[in-house]
Amino acid sequence: MIVTLYLSAINKAQSIFDSASPQAEKINRLSYGFLTVAAGVLLLVVVLTVYITIKFRSKENASEPRQITGNRKLEILMVSFPMVLVVIFFFWSLNTMNAINPDRAGQKSDIIITGHQWWWEAVYPGSKVITANEIHLPTGRKLLLQLNSADVIHDWWVPSFGAKMDMIPGMDNFLWVTIDKPGIYEGTCSEFCGEQHAWMRIMVVAQNPADYNKWLLAHTIKTTIPNDSLANKGEVIFMNSSCSSCHSIQGTVAAGMEGPNLTHFASRQTMLSGMMDNNPQNVEKWLTNPQKIKPGAHMPRFIFSKDSVRAITAYLTQLK
Amino acid sequence: MKAINLPEPEKPIPNLSVSNNQGLLQWISSVDHKQIGIMYLWLSVLFLVAAGCEILLVRIQLAVPNNHFLNPEVYNQLFTMHGTTMIFFVAMPAIFGFNTYLVPLMIGANDMAYPRLNAFSFWMTFFGGLLLYFSFLAGGAPDAGWFNYAPLNQYNYSSSPGVDYYCSGLLIAGIGTVTASANFVVTILKYRVNSMSLKQMPLFVWMILINSFLILAAFPSLNAALVMLLFDRQLHAHFFSVQGGGSAILWQHLFWLFGHPEVYIVILPAFGIFSEVFPVYSRKPIFGYTFIIASGMAIALLAFGVWIHHMFATGLGNTVNSFFAASSMLIGIPTGVKIFNWLATMHGGAIRFKVSMMFAIAFLIEFTIGGLTGISFTLVPIDWQLTDTYYVVAHLHFVFIGGTLFGLFSGLFYWFPKMSGRMLDEKLSKWFFWLFVLGFNTTFLVQHALGAMGMARRVYTYPDLPGWGILNLISTIGGFMMAIATGLLVFIIITALKTGEKATRDPWDANTLEWTTSSPPGLKNFDFVIPVKSTRPFRDLKRPDDADWKKTDNNG
Amino acid sequence: MIKLIIGTEAMFFLALIMAFVYFSFSADFRSHQLLSLDIKSTSIFSILLFSSSFTFWRAEACYQKGNVKYLRGWLLLTILLGGIFLFGQGREYLSLLNNHVTISSSIFGTSFFTLTGFHGLHVFAGLIVISIVTGLAFLGDYDKPGSSVIGAVGIYWHFVDIVWLFVFIIVYVVPHF
Question: What confidence tens digit (pLDDT) does each residue in A270-296 have?
C-alpha cells in the first residue's frame, strides 16, 4: 500500500487512491479503515511470531517443556474478538455499498456502454450520438452508466471513479458515478475477454457541462470533408469497400454495426482502444495490416494498395 | 473377517528369479499405498516444472511494457494452463500423495480400504493430466483462463479444441479425485487400529477426513458444468449461450460452487500438516485439538455458502451481495484463528529450527497476509475496486503458495526421511528455504500495488504507465528466484535419494504411529501396532511417565 | 462406500436439476413442456421403474433368507422392468426428435435431454451391474447370505429411482400446475 501511495504521489498514474468521484472517495475511506486494522492484525502476528520463535528456541539438552493442551477461555476470546471486527466492518461495508450503488429505481441511463471484443461502444440516449472508445461524460452530475455486452463478458473499470461492473451478454448492468473535476481518466476492461483483452483500455474525457454539451452537439453534425482529392478518393473507397459494412459514419451510407463507429474519428486522441495515439502514421500502419498491430482483432487484413491506404487515411483523419 | 498374519518372506524364493528390484512394471502395477503415494508426489513435481515453465515465459513477456516476446494467442494458453495445472495437477496430486502415503500409517492400517481403487484413482489423475497437455499438440491448449468463463468458452469464441481438452482432462482427473476421496473416508472410518477412537486421530487425518467430504460434495458441480459445456461445444446445446436462451452467468454459479470449496480443499490438508509439524518441533502438544477440528468442520460447511464473493461485480444486486459478504466474513474467522492456535503451540515450547519448521513459521506470516487480503474482498466496495486485478493474483498466490505449498514443503521436509529412508541435506535445504521465501515475496508483494494502481489480470502486455514497468520487472526477477530455488530443491531430493545420510526410524522425536515403522516402512506397514490411548501414542510409549492419557486436564 | 458414491452423484443431479429449474423460468419453456412431453405414457413407464425398486427389495429379502430361486427370479424381474423403462424413454426421445426437439433446438431441449439423459445413463449402468449380479447369482455365487454386494447395488438402484421421482415431478408434473 505504501508503494502504491508513493508511486501515485509522484506521477499521474491513476490508482484506486486517486479518487475523482465521491463513490471512489467512500470506497477509499473504507479501504483505509480496513488497511489500518489489517496492518494491526499482521503486526500482531509478526510480533508474536518473532517473539515466540526467539524466546522459545530450544536450548541444548533442555528438558521437555510443560505440555499444555489448550485453554477454553483463550479460544473463546480468539473467536469473539474477530467477530466484533466482522460485525463492524460488515455494517460499514454495507453502508458504503448501498451509498455507492443504490438501486436505479427506474432512472434512465445517461449513457449506454456496450463492450465488444475489443472496443467500447457508447450510445447517448436522448441524442443521436453513437461513438466508440473515447467516452465523454459531464462532470458534477450523478450519472447512470448502463453496461451491456455484444459478445463475451467484459468489465468496465475506471479506478478513479470507484467500482467496476461486469458487462454480461443478455443482462443490463448499471453503475453510478459522479465525476468531480474535468480531466482524462483511464481504466481498462477487467474481465478476460479473449485475445486482445489487454488492449481494451478505457479513456473517459470528463468535461464540465458546458463543454460536454458543445461536444455532444458537434457530434450530431456531419463532418464536411474539404475539397481534398486524396480524402475524397478515400471516402469513395471507404463507402464502396467492405469498410462501410462494418463501420458507421453518421450522415453517410456507411451504417455497419460490427466495428467501432467512426463518426468524428479524428477527434479522438487514441485509437484501437488506447493502444496507440491517433495520428496518420498509426492509421496507415493499422490499415496496412491490422493483424500485425492488434492480432486477433476482428478486422481482417484487406490487401489495400499503398495508395488506397493513404487515401483512406486522408479521409479518416479529416473526420474531426 | 479375521485377519491372517502371514510372515514376510526373508529370502527370495529359489529358482524363480524373483528379485527385490522394483522395476518400472512393478511401480505401474502397484496397489501399495506407499508406492502410489510416491507416484502422486512425482507426478506433482513433473507438473510443477511444466506449470513453472509456463509462468516463467509469461513473466518474461510481462517484464517490460509493450513487450513482443509472446503473441497474445500463446500467452493466453500459457496463463490458462499455468493455473489449471497448478491447481489440478500439482496441488491436488501432491496432497493426495501425502494423504495416500500417510493416512494408513497414521491410523495403524496396512493399506487403504480399496487398494486397487487407489491405483485407479492415481492413474485417472495421471491420464487426465496427459489429456489436458495433449491439447498443445492437438490444435492449442485451452486459452480462456483457468475458470473458463462463458460465453468466451463457447465454440464460436474459442474455436480451438483447447477448451474441449480442458473439459475432458478435468472430468477424467476428477473421477480420480472423487474415488480417492471416497477411499479415504472409508479407510479413516473403518480401518483405524482398534484402539484408536476418532478423538485420538492425528489432526492431519482429521483434516483429510473433512476434506474428503468436501471433495465429494464439491466436484459434482464442476463435473456438471464441464459436461454442460461439452454439450454446448460439441452438440450445440444452449446451456451457456445467450443467443440460444442460455445463461452465461450459470457457468459462474456452477464453477464457483465448486471453485470456492476447492480452495479449502487445497488448504485444509496444509492445516493438517502444520498441526503435525508444530507440536513435534515445539515439543508440546497442539494447542486446542478439538477447536481445530471444529474450525475445520465449520469451514467445510460454510464453504458452500460463500461462492458469490467471486461474483460481486456481476450485478446480482445488493441484497445477494450482502448475504454472501456476511458469510464470507464469517468463514474468515475459523480459517484465521488457527494461526493463533499454532502460535500458542509454539509458545512455551522448545523450538527446533529444522527446515520443516521454518516453512511452518514462514507460513504463519505469509498466510496471514493472504488471509487479510482475502478478507478485504469480503468488503464488497473494496472488491468492486480490486477484483480482477493483480491484487487478486497477489492474494491467491499468498494463500496458495504461502499456505498450500509451504504446507507441502513443510510436510516434505518432515516426512521425507520416513518415506525414503534418507535425510535431506539440512544446510542446502536452508538455502532453498531462504531463496524460495525471498523469491516468493519479491514476486508477489509488488503485485498488490500493481492491482491498486489499475493493472488488470490476464493481460498479455501493458502500457508504459509510471511504476508499472519497474514493479513488473521486480516481479519477474522474483519469479526466476523461485525457479532457481525449485531447481535446487529437485537437486536436494535427488542427491538425498542417491547418497543421503540414512534415516533412523524416528529422526524428529515425533508423536504419531507412522514414526514407529522403519524408514522406509516395509511392504507390510505393521505386524502389530503400539497401544493408542491418546493423540500422541508414540510419545506415550517413549515417555510413559508423562503420557497424555494419564492426564486429566486434556483441553484437546 | 456406496453411500458416499450416492452422495456425490446426488450433488451432481442436484446441479443438473438446478440448471433445469433455472431455465424453466424462461419464456417458452412451460409451453414446450406441456406440448412436447407425454406425461401419460411416461407415468406408466415411471411406475414400472418404481416397481423395479420393489422387485429388487424383494430380491434382497430373499437373499437374506437364503432363498436362491426367488432371488434369481426377482432379479430378472428387476432387469425386465428397468429395461422397459429405458425402452419407454427411448420411445419418448424418438418422438421428440421426430418433432425436431433436440438438445440443440432450444433451451428446453438442452436441459431436458441432459437431465433425463444422465438419469437414463445411470439406469443403464445400474442394469449392467444388476445383470452381472444376476449372472453370478445363476452361477451360484449368492447361494448363501453374507455378501454386501446385493445390498450395495440395492442402495444404488433405489437412489436411481428416487432421482427419477424428483426429475419426473419437476419435468413432467409441475408444468401442469
Answer: 999 999 999 999 999 999 999 999 999
Backbone angles phi, psi at B219, to 5 degrees: -60, -35
The dotted CATH code for A229-316 is 2.60.40.420
- What does the pLDDT look like over B385-440, one tens digit per residue? 999 999 999 999 999 999 999 999 999 999 999 999 999 999 999 999 999 999 99
Tens of pLDDT, residue by residue over B195-230, are: 899 999 999 999 999 999 999 999 999 999 999 999
CB contact under 8 A, B282 and A56: yes
Q: Does B369 touch chain A (CB under 8 A)?
A: yes
Arithmetic mean of pLDDT over chain B: 93
The bridge status of strand A142-149 relative to strand A111-116 is parallel
pLDDT digits (tens, 9 = 90+) for A112-149: 999 999 999 999 998 889 999 999 999 999 999 999 99
CB of A37 closer than 8 Å to CB of A93: no
- The C-alpha cell that represents B460 in the structure block: 498479455
Residue A4 has pLDDT above 70, yes or no: no
Q: Which residues of B touch C16 (CB under 8 A)?
A: 224
Q: Which residues make up the CATH 2.60.40.420 domain(s) of chain A?
A: 229-316
Q: Which residue of chain A has the CA closest to B369?
A: A42
In this structure, the dihedral spanned by the alpha carbons of residues C62, C67, C73 and C77, taken in order and rounded to 10 degrees, is 0
Task: Assess whether chains A and B touch, using the rule of 3 or more C-beta pairs within 8 angstroms.
Answer: yes
Residues of chain A neighbouring B380 (CB-CB closer than 8 A) = 93-94, 96-97
Residues in B touching A33 (Cβ below 8 Å): none
Contacts of B236 in chain C (CB under 8 A): 103-104
Query: Chain C residues with CB-CB distance to B under 8 A?
Result: 1, 4-5, 7-9, 11-12, 14-16, 19, 22-23, 26-27, 103-104, 106-107, 109-111, 113-114, 118
Q: pTM above 0.90?
A: yes
Are B555 and A195 in contact (CB < 8 Å)? Answer: no
Candidate from B157, B315, B365 with C-beta closest to A171 = B315
Chain C residues touching B237 at Cβ < 8 A: 103-104, 109-110, 113-114
Strand partners, B422: B502
Q: How confident is the model at residue B21 (pLDDT cuts 50, 70, 90)?
A: low
Cα nearest neighbour of B79 on chain A: A192
Residue linked to cell 456476511: B326
Backbone region of residue A272 per phi and psi (left: phi > 0; alpha: psi in -120 to 50; beta: other values): left
Q: Cα–Cα distance between B63 and B77 in angstroms, integer? A: 18
From chain B, pick out residues whose CB is under 8 angstroms from the CB of C114: 227-228, 231, 237, 239
- The CATH class, in words, for B29-548 is mainly alpha
Nearby residues of B57 by Cβ (< 8 Å), 6 or more positions away? B69, B70, B78
CB B510 within 8 A of CB B280: yes
- Output the pLDDT for position A10: 47
Flag whether pLDDT at C89 surpasses 80: yes
Q: Hey, of A1, A19, A164, which one would you mutate to test binding to chain B, going by the most B CBs within 10 A of its CB?
A: A164
- What cell does B289 get? 485439538
Place of cell 493430466: B129
How confident is the model over B441-452, as a mean pLDDT? 95
Average pLDDT over residues B320-329: 95
pLDDT in tens, A181-210: 999 999 999 999 999 999 999 999 999 999
CA atoms within 13 A on the CB side of C139: 7
| 8 Å CB contact of A194 and B556 | no
Q: In terms of CA atoms, which chain A residue is nearest residue B346? A: A52
Boundaries of every domain in chain B: 29-548
Domain C2-20+42-176 has CATH 1.20.120.80: yes
Domain boundaries, chain C: 2-20+42-176
